[in-house]
Write a structure and sequence with these properties.
CATH architecture of the largest domain: Alpha-Beta Complex
Shape: elongated
CATH class of the largest domain: Alpha Beta
Number of domains: 2
Helix content: 40-55%
Oligomer: single chain
Distance between the termini: 45 Å
Largest sheet: 4 strands, antiparallel
Structural class: alpha+beta
């Protein structure tokens, strides 16, 4: 999938430990200059939006409704709009960063960010998830609890981040989305193959245990194959 990609001709040191070198023409800006933190009011019709660790940010009901702690009072909840970059302060280190595909409302533990004119929220969701994968977000943690962070907007805003030209951001997102579609299709195909093989396995088990086929004949075939393989090995030793 990467055979058609080519390296940039000129690179420079970004000065960012987890990032390394970047193309020479890319700029470096702090997060607070690329996004602004929103604090929208909530309307009565807003439904709960959840930021998941796989980077999906969507209405909770689209994924599942069980396994969550329901708030008796939604104190501090904020409005979320489609296209917002959402960062889960406590779970960002595990990849809970993404772009909302829905309007709704979310817990105050989320940093809901609106991009400036030069920034593509989808590109920065990929970038921040890479920051999480590199364990940089976890390295910023000030708490003593293991695998626990508090990556709020104040911390995000101080982080130096690359700013590619807008067209390169869009091209990057388009390419990654295409790769993701191919991988997801491959996974679906493999899962379907596993399902078919398991069905075949169960059918064989059913035929054997219920007497639909004679096991001795099956064993006889296996013994012949085993004897044939052993004969070939012996012949190879003689000629050697």
């Amino acid at each position: 999938m990467t055979q058609t990609l080519q390296a940039y001709p000129k690179m420079k040191d970004s000065g960012v430990p987890w990032l390394g070198e970047v193309p020479e023409h890319w700029e470096i800006h702090r997060g607070k200059n690329l996004f602004r933190k929103m604090n929208r009011p909530v309307s009565d019709s807003d439904e709960v939006v959840t930021c998941f660790r796989d980077g999906t940010v969507t209405l909770r009901k689209k994924r599942r409704v069980s396994g969550f702690t329901e708030s008796l009072k939604e104190i501090g909840y904020q409005g979320i709009r489609r296209g917002d970059l959402v960062i889960h302060a406590m779970d960002a280190f595990a990849g809970a960063i993404g772009v909302s595909d829905s309007d709704g409302k979310g817990t105050p533990v989320y940093s809901v960010c609106e991009p400036s004119l030069k920034t593509d929220s989808h590109y920065y969701a990929h970038l921040l998830r890479e920051m999480a994968r590199s364990q940089w977000i976890q390295a910023l943690a000030k708490g003593i609890r293991e695998r626990s962070t508090d990556f709020r907007f104040e911390a995000f805003g101080l982080q130096p981040l690359p700013l590619p030209p807008a067209e390169e951001q869009a091209a990057t997102v388009q390419y990654l989305d295409g790769v993701d579609r191919k991988i997801q299709q491959f996974i679906r195909n493999r899962r379907r193959l596993i399902e078919v093989l398991n069905e075949q396995k169960q059918a064989i088990i059913n035929q054997v245990v219920t007497g639909k086929v004679e096991v001795k004949k099956v064993e006889g075939k296996r013994e012949k194959e085993k004897e044939k393989a052993e004969g070939k090995r012996e012949k190879g030793k003689e000629t050697g």
